[in-house]
Design a protein that fits this description.
The structure holds 2 protein chains of 2 kinds. By secondary structure, chain A is mainly β. Chain A is built from no helices and 11 strands. In chain A, strand 4 and strand 5 form a beta hairpin. The termini of chain A are far apart. Chain B contains no helices and 11 strands. In chain B, a hairpin with a 2-residue loop joins strand 5 and strand 6. Classes of the chains: A mainly beta, B mainly beta. Chains A and B meet through strand 4, strand 5 and strand 9 of A and strand 5 of B.
């Protein structure tokens, strides 16, 4: 079945530095790749997404890149701030399995002051 | 709009007890989902529904049942609670994906139900 692998599982960066989280997916039919942020004790919330007809998307300090040939996509956070500390989940879905999204296992990001 | 609501927020069950986790959404979404999230882990899909009267199994359906009699409500039933079902349960909803060219359907999550089985 479809699988999404996410790395690293934990990441600690100095405030102001950049953070990168990477995901790979197995289903070549996948065409939608969202990223969710989950703060401690809260629900996951969408922070950015990208569709397969786009290679990169940016929203202020966060950006996502997609390499369809290699079947991997990445989340980039620049100028990290304490409020960026959270667990981040990547996910993938495709038209063939459009009714459900497969989530990665999550990355716990900690921002050191 | 209230979005996706879940009740109860917390519950402690004894082994063998039954309960229903309630989920409702007021966004007229066709698609609804139930996930469980074990401590420090990711989201695992239990069941999902693409519309009233239609449900299907996800990755971890054993020990659970669902029904979808209306667009708004998607309750999750635990028949014989076991310690392995101790988890946080999230309900989510979304519109159907726009299609092959567009792809994608943002999921909106409820606040979660923290269930402990002792």
């Amino acid at each position: 079945g479809e699988n999404v692998e996410q790395h690293p599982s934990t990441l600690s960066v100095q405030e102001g530095d950049s953070a990168v989280i990477k995901c790979t997916y197995s289903d070549s039919a996948s065409n939608y790749f969202p990223w969710y942020k989950q703060e401690l004790g809260k629900r996951p919330q969408l922070i950015i997404d990208i569709r397969s007809n786009v290679g990169e998307k940016k929203d202020q300090r966060i950006a996502v890149t997609l390499n369809k040939t290699a079947k991997h996509f990445s989340l980039h956070i620049t100028e990290t701030q304490p409020e960026d500390s959270a667990v981040y989940f990547c996910a993938a879905t495709g038209y063939s399995s459009a009714s459900k999204i497969i989530f990665g296992s999550g990355t716990r990001l900690s921002i050191r002051p | 709009n209230a979005g996706v609501t879940q009740t109860p927020k917390f519950r402690i069950l004894k082994i063998g007890q039954s309960m229903t986790l309630q989920c409702a959404q007021d966004m007229n979404h066709n698609y609804m989902y139930w996930y469980r999230q074990d401590p420090g882990m990711g989201l695992k899909l239990i069941y999902y529904s693409v519309g009233a009267g239609i449900t299907d199994k996800g990755e971890v359906p054993n020990g659970y049942n669902v029904s979808r009699s209306t667009t708004e409500d998607f309750p999750l039933r635990l028949e014989l609670a076991a310690p392995s079902q101790t988890s946080v349960y999230f309900c989510a909803s979304s519109y159907p994906p726009p299609g092959l060219a567009g792809g994608g359907n943002e999921q909106f999550f409820g606040p979660g139900t923290r269930l402990t089985v002792l």
